[in-house]
Design brief:
single chain, 109 residues, alpha+beta, Hypothetical Protein Aq_1857, Chain: A, six-stranded mixed β-sheet, 2 helices
Length: 109
């Protein structure tokens, strides 16, 4: 059984803030693409709606949706939003990632 990724409260709050600013629904799409310094990279975007075959989770009224192909690579992950001196960004805590880069935006399996 594949575990759908989830948002932390901090990530849900940030998605809601961005969605309100853009006048869109609070739905964050997480996808995985080839590339990045470690082989795969995470891609985030606001979605207008979930696709029929998307895996979905919800935190505080904010949805996280993942397509079936990406789900195999991010199952069990937690999406957080962190702010530091280096900036603010969504971070994926991926239990399947065997390697990652310093910026946290790419990973290897």
């Amino acid at each position: 059984m594949t575990t759908t990724p989830a948002l932390t409260e901090a990530a849900a709050k940030r998605v809601r803030w961005i969605a309100d600013k853009q006048g869109k629904p609070a739905i964050l799409r997480l996808a995985v693409e080839g590339g990045g310094c470690s082989g795969f990279q995470y891609k985030f975007e606001l979605a207008d709606a979930a696709d029929r075959d998307d895996a979905q989770s919800e935190t505080g009224g904010v949805k996280l949706v993942v397509d079936p192909i990406s789900l195999d690579l991010v199952a069990g992950s937690i999406v957080d939003f962190v702010e530091s001196l280096g900036g603010a960004a969504f971070r994926v805590e991926n239990p399947q990632a065997a390697a990652g880069c310093g910026c946290g935006s790419s990973f290897g399996i």
